[in-house]
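Work package 3, deliverable 3.1, input record:
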Amino acid sequence: MTNEEHDKLLIERIKKDDHEAFRLLVDKYKDQALSLAYTFLKDKAHAEDILQEVFIRVYKKIKSFKYQSAFYTWLYRIVVNHCHNELRKRKRSDIEIEKIDLGEDSLSAQTDLNDKKTIIQASLDIMKFDEALVLKLFYLSELKMDEVVEVTEFSLSKVKVTLHRARKNLAVILREKFGKEIEEL
Amino acid sequence: MKEDRLEDLLKDSLLKTSDDFTDQLMGKVSKMHMQKIRLRLNALIVSVIACFGSGAFLIIRFGIQLNAFGFSLDMPKIAPLVGIGFVGLVILLHLTNLSRMISSSIE
């Protein structure tokens, strides 16, 4: 059974008010959705709160879901929209310009360099928002190019260019900021 | 950096939700579900009463002879009272429902 068929099966059960199926669907996508929400909000607790709202919305709207796209594309689109709205509410839509200062001193204070996860997350935080978003959707959520286009509402060419640039920039950041440490991991 | 290596590194960066995330969410979903059921039930009760009320009103208003069943009622006097009574009951139920909704949303 493919991933989409499995989702369809769960969705059909949810439409019949099967809460266990909803729990399975949430467990399947919550971590990836959290990583996506974190790209916007840069705060894990806040991203989790938003994610709760997102899943409540999914539960309310799932009966009208018509399988015009894959479920995960629909879910990630809701996450992206919700985060955009949240940023607009907080009047912080300029967050993409903000970059976390990871100078030599702050670096050791903020990250435990033995933790690979922290290093990657810190690198993604330094990256441009668009690049981190596309990178996560493509590699972490394993979306196809056209699905990334659907979620981000960027053009296909923009997604390709952003992805190419993101790969290059991430490699540069990892080498510059964490060169020795990342090789050792 | 090789693409496979990049993919592995990114996979390692996947954030994990807190342990009680799903339980919290399911609690909210169950609460929503119960509220939906309660509202549906209330709506059902209101519709049933409204149907019976209007039915009774029509029967009395258009003069089906209850006397035939052994009642001796003064129809013209009772009819408006019965009608007003049922309409009042329906309004009362709606108000009760409304206040319950408002109080739960405040909670």
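Chain A has nine helices and no strands.
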